[in-house]
Fold this protein.
Amino acid sequence: MSFYRAHVLVCAGTNCALKGSQAVRERLVSELEGRGLGAEVKVVETGCFGLCEEGPTVVVYPEGVLYCRVTPDDVPELVEEHLLKGRRLERLIYRQPVEKAVQTVPQMDFFRGQVRVVLRNCGVIDPESIEEYIAQGGYQALGKALTEMTPADVVAELKASGLRGRGGAGFPTGLKWEFAARAKGDVKYVVCNADEGEPGTFKDRLILEGDPHSVIEGMTIAAYAVGAKKGYVYIRGEYALSIERLETALKQARKMGLLGRDIFGSGLEFDIEVRVGAGAYVCGEETALFESLEGGRGEPRLKPPYPTDVGLFGKPTVINNVETLANVAPIISHGAKWYRTLGTEGSPGTKVFTLTGDIVNEGLIEVPMGITLREVIYGIGGGIPEGRGFKMAQTGGTSGGCLPAELLDVPMDYDELAKVGSALGSGALLIMDDTHCIVDIARVFSRFFEHESCGKCVPCREGTMRLHEIMTRITTGEATPKDIENLEALARTMAAACLCPLGQAAPVPVMTTFKYFREEYDAHIKEKRCPTGTCRALASPAVSLAAGKGV
Amino acid sequence: MAREVKKAVDTALVDKIVAKHRTREGALLPVLREVQDSLGYLPQEALERVALGLGLSLSRVYGVATFYSLFYTRPKGRYMVRVCESAPCHVQGAQEVIDALIRELGVSFGETTPDGRFTLEKVSCLGVCGVAPAVMIEDRVYGNLTPESVVAVIQEYR
């Protein structure tokens, strides 16, 4: 193995790629070759580093210096200064908002509050190299499980860790595995739910792009624990790069005997197939996903029976989210006791969040459960751009609730967020500043559900449509106080009668905005006035022209 | 990746795709994906061949083909322009970007430009919310768009 005196990590996550990281990487390689440094300095393409707002990002090791917004034209100077002369190129070094230049990665506010378990390798290794994954301790947990533990031990460790499903529902993973392990039948399946469709969420995409082997390892451990021979990853069709990286990783794992027959000489036989979705939000619901995988319309099934008894192709099935599975190997390696040192009593471990909307550091973060919204937004997130005021944060994606400034100190875990009418959900955090209209955004939420309802059950098919109609009437000034009564009755009916979480959750974002921002609704309904001037039908012509929003 | 819309359906090609996947469990979605990749969309004749080949009723195949937003049963333009109108894009100014797109292309959602070059479609979420507002043209994603920059992006495809 050749020795390199320095490694230059170029983020190849989608966000950085959009900003031209590929050209930066190519220029780096040619520049290093041109200066005869090709054998001394290695350029590595990594998965997402998390600081998407500052992309394309480049990290130079061994010093760990982070350069931001690097363009191909910056490359000759970067190579000249840092890699030839050993001086840091000050003008490209990451600067914290209002503070001075930060020298190395661990010193950044953005990383200080973070604990990286799931994202341990993202932005650190080349996601297309199984050797680098193994060099970071990868597949050791699988080896440990297969050679030192019985399937029952694995289940017990998972149960003891308190890991809960990271797809949104928060069901205890160990318990799910135990049900599947106990279920009768020779044929069982392990399914990875990578149909990430919750608006504002892109964590699963970045985990698969940045560290696909961590998911494969988690699935293989699950297969051993429950006795499955076949696994599927159901991934949304829009995630071209994730699909490509995952396929590459699967080939590498098969070649090394980490998938296939007799894994680690233990007799375990397991392989994984990738299935690509075709564009339906509802397929993120587990039973709808099974229907889709079986070749049908993605319509949810009635539960019970639960998937651990009657799942994919009618067989007992463990279905876990990408992030849940990426937690498995560290738990097996370091133990449940270690895992419980992170997070809260009821929600141990870390959570990956995606920060979007009006926030300085848009991107991907991983923090211990129980951290407050305030710490995330004003600490790691760097606050709201241009010093504007905070209005609300929506947790858990479009099906989550909206929280006002009074709730900024709520600890973020499954139980605490549920108490205030919201949800941890997928980990999406949408931040809105005080220039936005709360009623307008609630209308956008309701439009989403109307579009994505699968149409199988009446309360959802009709309910999402009526919800959107009422919200549209409010934003166009046609609503009456009667609409508010109807809205409340509709929300109750949908929560109780809809078949799956899509319909049950559809009124949640609307009703939480109604609960916490009632005066803004009243302005729209009673005074026919939009306080922020966002709703075009209500804003006076002068206001809409001034805001540049005239039709 | 431009896709040519063919006039007559190449049924032999459809049969070949069906034969390749027919032993897989739940083969219908992979088959439809590949047929669409080859033909540009899913014409009725192709759906009939798929139904026949997989031993399914045409109504079932048609039901699946029309359920998913990435399947098309009508011809579409050479370039598919998908614009996200979900909340994270919305708060970052997606509406202005959508207005600019509609002005630039001269068509509304679900329509194809008269020259057959672009089909405009709204989507729920592209999963690239970190660079909102976002548009996807065929397989390429464009982010951090403004009403001006989205017009420049369209010009690249003219």
About this structure: Chain A touches chain B through 58 residues (CB under 8 Å).
